[in-house]
Design a protein that fits this description.
Layout (H helix, E strand, L loop, with lengths): L2 H9 L5 H11 L25 H15 L16 H14 L32 H17 L6 E5 L2 E3 H7 L1 H4 L6 E5 L5 E8 L7 H7 L6 E10 L12 E11 L1 H21 L5 E4 L6 H13 L3 E9 L2 E12 L1 H6 L10 E8 H12 L8 H6 L3
Parallel strand pairs: 1-5
Antiparallel strand pairs: 2-4, 3-4, 5-6, 6-10, 7-8, 8-9, 9-10
Helix pairs in contact: 2-4, 3-10, 5-12
The chain binds guanosine-5'-monophosphate (5GP) and zinc ion (ZN).
């Protein structure tokens, strides 16, 4: 945006009404409300008028670019984007606070764990011994039994996935700081980014399959994949490569909304039966940047993600499992049409196998033969 356009936009600030019209013009984008924005009342709830979370992110980004401001973190929440009037007032406040010169840069500083230097083993990349793998096998078998009544089939997915699937899932745009890409020889000549990226979440592998085989009103599959996330730190339990076991269900909105509550309580009792002391918390994914802070805040306030946390080390409490209600996010992205033509909803329940192993070791010690007989029996050890 050129500097005069910014000055123009910023000169609306003292106008009140002018600012309101400026916000209205953003909502009049054909990708948001189009012509309907003109007749929207100043205090009307824009979500009720049909503006989605993604469109609110679009509004947020347009406001930031148009006024050359950065909406502060504590304002990036659904209440700030409730109506044209509320947005206009919030933007006025921020524009007055932030001068166009010297505003903080966009984006977040990344402090990735460095693998440079003399260190041979990369932080957050661990191997598993045979004894530990037998615990993971016990967990896999126990989870398979736990969900046997509803899971139609189980898949083991590779550590790479089609870039196009990851893009459809929205991962590179929402989590560019965590995505791992595959570079290599390209068809023809030279090297560069390939058509693959590293798997970020096991369930991403299932959506193309579900969209091709979408025949039932309700369905359920499970999947395990080695996932990669470019985590900035590598404390105990924070790996860059870890195994994720997921149960994914899709179907009618009401069924899925109910299923995620049921899945949460089934998972919690299973974890407690393993003797772990579990804390449940509403959570959010680490979306990138200021638009991401809005998505994270909306995810928290709508309680779309619940984590089950356990101690994985002295004083280190981490999510060993989480349940995520995607609403129509993947349904829209992958064309999951229900038999009546409407968009299907989906939810997933994810278990971090490596973290579960750590939590069990933290609880019972590193000597697996010394674990209580009941736990060993449960895990067929
Ligand atoms: P989510 O997609 O909810 O972030 O992750 C699903 C599950 O994968 C989490 O509940 C957790 O158990 C596991 N997980 C996520 N990030 C990491 C990580 O950095 N290291 C390990 N070991 N597990 C993780
Ligand atoms: Zn998932």
């Amino acid at each position: 945006m050129n500097v005069f356009a910014v000055m123009d936009a910023r000169s609306n600030v003292n106008g009140g009404k002018l600012m309101e019209e400026s916000i209205r013009s953003i909502l009049a984008d054909p990708g948001i409300l189009g012509d309907a924005a003109a007749s929207l009342a100043r205090d009307a709830d824009i979500r009720l008028a049909g503006v989605s979370s993604m469109q609110i992110v679009q509004i947020l980004m347009e406001v930031e670019s148009r006024f050359e401001i950065e909406i502060p973190e504590d304002m990036i929440r659904p209440e700030t984007f409730r109506s044209i009037g509320v947005i206009a007032e919030a933007v006025e406040v921020v524009v007055k606070q932030q001068s166009p010169v010297g505003k903080p840069p966009n984006g977040e500083p990344m402090d990735r764990a460095s693998t440079a230097g003399t260190r041979l083993r990369a932080p957050g990349v661990e191997m598993t011994s045979r004894a530990d793998e037998s615990v993971l096998d016990g967990l896999r078998a126990s989870l398979a039994r736990l969900f046997a009544h509803e899971v139609d089939d189980h898949y083991t997915a590779p550590p790479v996935i089609a870039r196009s699937v990851s893009e459809r899932a929205g991962y590179p745009s929402s989590f560019p700081h965590l995505l791992g890409e595959v570079h290599g020889a390209l068809p023809g000549s030279g090297t560069g980014p390939s058509d693959l990226v590293l798997t970020s979440a096991a369930c991403h592998h299932l959506y193309p399959l579900i969209s091709e085989e979408w025949r039932k009103e309700l369905g359920c599959l499970s999947v395990e994949a080695a996932c990669y996330r470019g985590e900035a730190t590598a404390e105990t339990g924070r790996l860059r490569s870890f195994r994720m076991y997921e149960i994914v269900r899709w179907g009618a909105p009401d069924d899925i909304a109910m299923w995620r509550h049921r899945a949460l309580s089934i998972a919690e009792s299973w974890l407690r039966d393993l003797g772990l002391s579990i804390e449940r918390a509403a959570a959010n994914d680490p979306f990138f940047g200021s638009a991401g802070r809005y998505l994270a805040s909306a995810q928290q306030s709508e309680q779309l993600k619940w984590e089950m946390l356990a101690d994985v080390d002295d004083g280190v409490n981490q999510a060993v499992a989480s349940v995520n209600y995607h609403k129509d996010h993947f349904g829209e992205a992958f064309g999951l049409a229900r038999p009546d033509g409407s968009v299907g909803h989906s939810a997933c329940l994810a278990f971090g196998l490596d973290r579960l192993l750590l939590a069990l070791k933290q609880r019972y010690g590193s000597q697996i033969p010394a674990w209580p007989e009941t736990i060993r029996a449960r895990l067929e050890l």
